[in-house]
């Protein structure tokens, strides 16, 4: 039997799962269902793959990923943008499900993304609640904006919709509180995170659901993971301004708002921001640096299981 390493790429859609094994170019299509996940896992498992890679597709990949993980397969979920850029670099501009599965498998073999801990079922439920809360807030914002410019005869309908969504938001927030209280691990983590001034329930829950790696990575890796690490933009004699790119945009948006609050309420973050501004840093650069500092502190607090008031956290700050 060949000792050649095998890499599996899976393109996920609403109805099907397209699987390609690289470099053998073995292909198979499976239904997006529990039976399909089981058959797909059995098929992939027979090749003893080095890596199984899927793109994040808004939750459509969860069932397949969970089934693969239960069988102990080395599964990794990656950002679709990474695969698309990889395809473009190889001159592949066309896009079909079968072609995408092959590109994902080639990406797995060439890049070999790091395997990170997968979310358990409770964490996935928390993630779905956090996502739903974000969606409701976005819809509320849109409806409130429409209310100002809507004709008078339509405003009552919009107001009723706003009231209904506010009730749904209240229900989701109660469900979130209930989930946090039920889990002793999450409760302890949230208490540690919330002990830092500037960290509210929105940021703490976003970190719990969207950054399960918090407390397990180094300061450099956690900053890069969220997308607040400065990246070089140099070429030849040109030296460009460093900037952030990639990472987990949803977390970064929440972290930004929390950092703005922390600059006003947290003396450590506030003093750091003032120091950067006095040093001539542009406002956005200063806030981004504070976001990175805040995330690194929170990462250290979770790693050491130590609240903000502790000497360890203060030393890290």
What does it look like?
The protein has 317 residues and is α/β, with parallel strands linked by helices. 61% of the residues lie in helices and 10% in strands. Strands 3-2-1-4-5 form a 5-stranded mixed β-sheet. A two-stranded antiparallel ribbon has the order 6-7. α5 crosses α8 (201-210). The termini are far apart. It is built from 13 helices and 7 strands. It is globular, with a radius of gyration of 23 Å.
In a few lines, what is going on in this structure?
The chain has helices spanning about 35-45, 60-70, 80-90, 95-110, 120-150, 150-180, 185-195, 200-210, 220-225, 250-265, 265-280, 285-305, 310-315; strands at about 5-10, 15-20, 25-30, 50-55, 75-80, 235, 240.
**How much helical structure, as a percent, in the residues?**
55-70%
Strand order of the biggest β-sheet: 3-2-1-4-5
Count of discrete alpha- or pi-helical segments spanning 4 or more residues: 13
How large, in whole angstroms, is the Cα Rg?
A: 23 Å
The termini sit apart by: 55 Å
Approximate strand percentage: 5-15%
H/E element string? EEEHEHEHHHHHHHEEHHHH
Rough shape? globular
Mean pLDDT: 87
The overall strand count is 7
Structural class: alpha/beta
Largest sheet: 5 strands, mixed
Q: Would you identify the regions where 5 or more consecutive residues have pLDDT less than 50?
A: 310-317
């Amino acid at each position: 039997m060949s000792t050649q390493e095998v890499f599996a790429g899976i393109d996920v859609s609403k109805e099907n799962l397209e699987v390609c094994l690289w470099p053998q170019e073995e292909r198979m299509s499976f239904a997006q269902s529990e039976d399909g996940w089981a058959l797909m896992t059995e098929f992939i498992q027979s090749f003893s793959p080095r890596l199984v890679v899927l793109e994040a597709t808004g939750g459509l990949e969860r069932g397949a990923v969970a089934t693969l993980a239960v069988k102990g397969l080395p599964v990794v979920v990656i950002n679709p943008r990474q695969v698309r850029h990889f395809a473009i670099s190889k001159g592949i501009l066309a896009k079909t499900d079968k072609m995408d599965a092959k590109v994902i498998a080639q990406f797995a073999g060439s890049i070999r993304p790091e395997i990170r801990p997968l979310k358990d079922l409770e964490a996935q439920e928390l993630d779905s609640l956090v996502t739903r809360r974000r969606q409701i807030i976005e819809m509320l914002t849109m409806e409130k904006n429409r209310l100002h410019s809507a004709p008078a005869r339509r405003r009552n309908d919009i107001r009723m919709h706003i009231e209904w969504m506010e009730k749904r938001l209240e229900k989701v927030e109660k469900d979130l509180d209930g989930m946090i209280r039920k889990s002793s691990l999450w409760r302890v983590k949230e208490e540690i995170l919330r002990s830092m001034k500037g960290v509210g329930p929105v940021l703490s829950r976003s970190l719990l659901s969207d950054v399960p790696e918090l407390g397990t990575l180094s300061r450099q890796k956690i900053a890069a993971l969220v997308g607040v690490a400065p990246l070089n933009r140099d070429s030849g004699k040109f030296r460009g301004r460093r900037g952030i790119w990639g990472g987990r945009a949803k977390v970064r948006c929440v972290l930004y708002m929390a950092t703005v609050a922390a600059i006003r309420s947290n003396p450590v973050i506030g003093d750091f921001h003032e120091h950067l501004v006095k040093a001539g840093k542009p406002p956005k650069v200063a806030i981004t640096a504070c976001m990175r500092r805040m995330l690194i502190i929170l990462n250290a607090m979770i790693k050491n299981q130590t609240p903000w008031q502790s000497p360890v956290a203060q030393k890290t700050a």
